[in-house]
Design goal:
With about 200 residues, the chain is an alpha+beta fold. The protein contains five helices and eight strands; from the N terminus they run H-E-H-H-E-E-E-H-E-E-E-E-H. Strands 1, 2, 3, 4, 5, 6, 7 and 8 form an eight-stranded mixed beta sheet that branches.
């Protein structure tokens, strides 16, 4: 068993993690994307980005790079790395993107956001996998004496973005964000990063 095999019911049965759909973010001040990001995504929109790999390279990666630059390298991210937190319970395997606090280390350190590319372009199919990776990230942090209030997650098709938060239970946002509303999408990511700037 690995992250991609989990269902939300599995997470509840094995780890006692219930889930709830709710509004995660209050109205946020939109953030103007850089000219570089707008140009990059405009060019990407003209490409046949049918596969998950193509979307990660042409859409997700530039958005994350923009966030890193906006925040003076407070964050870094890993793509396609393994996060083996609890192999006996199936919390292992490859992650699409792991966003961490940048501690200057080569190894994964301090994961704060898990990002999963939706399978079959269906955002709901990615929710259990992302949730399992969030549980894995929480356990990984605990094993390394890293204490944070919560772990965030995001599932994306490239166009649609759905956010989650793991604290005492799993909270799934009842609102989706869209690439054509890039200012709002950046605002959500920035609000998450700002919370970690205060707490870590």
């Amino acid at each position: 068993m690995s992250y991609s095999d989990f269902t939300l019911k599995d997470l509840q049965n094995k780890f006692g993690i219930k889930n709830k759909v709710c509004r995660l973010f209050d109205k946020l001040e939109p953030i103007e994307p850089s000219d570089w990001l707008k140009t990059t995504l405009e060019k990407a929109s003209k490409l046949p980005t049918r596969s998950e790999k193509a979307k990660s390279e042409s859409i997700v990666f530039p958005v994350l790079l923009e966030l890193r630059e906006r925040n003076n390298q407070f964050i870094t991210f890993y793509s396609g790395d393994n996060l083996n937190a609890d192999e006996e319970n199936g919390l292992k395997g490859e992650c699409d993107f792991i966003i961490t606090k940048d501690t200057g280390t080569f190894d994964i350190n301090y994961p704060i956001i898990q990002l999963v590319e939706a399978k079959k372009n269906d955002i709901e199919l990615g929710v259990p996998q992302c949730a399992a990776q969030m549980v894995g990230a929480k356990i990984f942090n605990q094993q390394n004496n890293v204490l944070v209030d919560g772990i965030y997650g995001c599932v994306t098709t490239g166009n649609e973005w759905l956010f989650m938060q793991l604290t005492d239970q799993l909270y799934i946002d009842n609102q989706k964000y869209y690439l054509n509303e890039l200012k709002n999408l950046l605002a959500v990511f920035q609000s998450i990063i700002d919370k970690f700037k205060i707490s870590v």
